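pasting for ref
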Amino acid sequence: MPSSFILSFFHLYLRSVKLLTVFFCVLFSVSMLAQNKDSIVQKMPVSHPTVKKDTVAKAHSPKKAALFSAILPGSGQVYNHQAWKVALFYGGLGALGYLIYDNNKIYKDYRQQWIYLTDLDANTNVRDELSGASPDALHNAFSSFRKYRDQSVIGFVLVYAANIIDANVYAHLYYFNVDDLTFHLTPNYNLYTKSMTPSLTLRYQF
């Protein structure tokens, strides 16, 4: 396989990884902003005169939600009555887990082929499709896939951490009615540039 073809394949693969990363970032951002009426509008528990306020406040625990998600991703979201988020987190973790496995497998393969090509042993030969590749091309190949694997591991850890943080944050907002919390996209006139620019405002009605 010509080295130019290998390099072009790597560039195509890198673009695919970047697009996938951007896609999951956008998907996660949308999921954080999306509001499900069944999970947002929660009725305050009916307090009995004999029940202390501390007992009511501890009815829904953010620590417990975070612990659940740390032990089993998505369980904290189920505890917060936001089970629809489970598919998003498992989709991200599953995709990144596959990327870790696939990149690691290709990294090991190209590294082994590079060893075969540079060990000066007549009994070890590279695969036929890589017979025309140079040592530098194979070295760049396994180095690139090692980097992709490491980036996928970092992404996996970030999504796992986001799953815990999300459970904790929404547990704090469990009794918070956000019906009056709205986002508005309005035009804003810039005096310095003398042009109209979009402006995002957050409004809460007391």
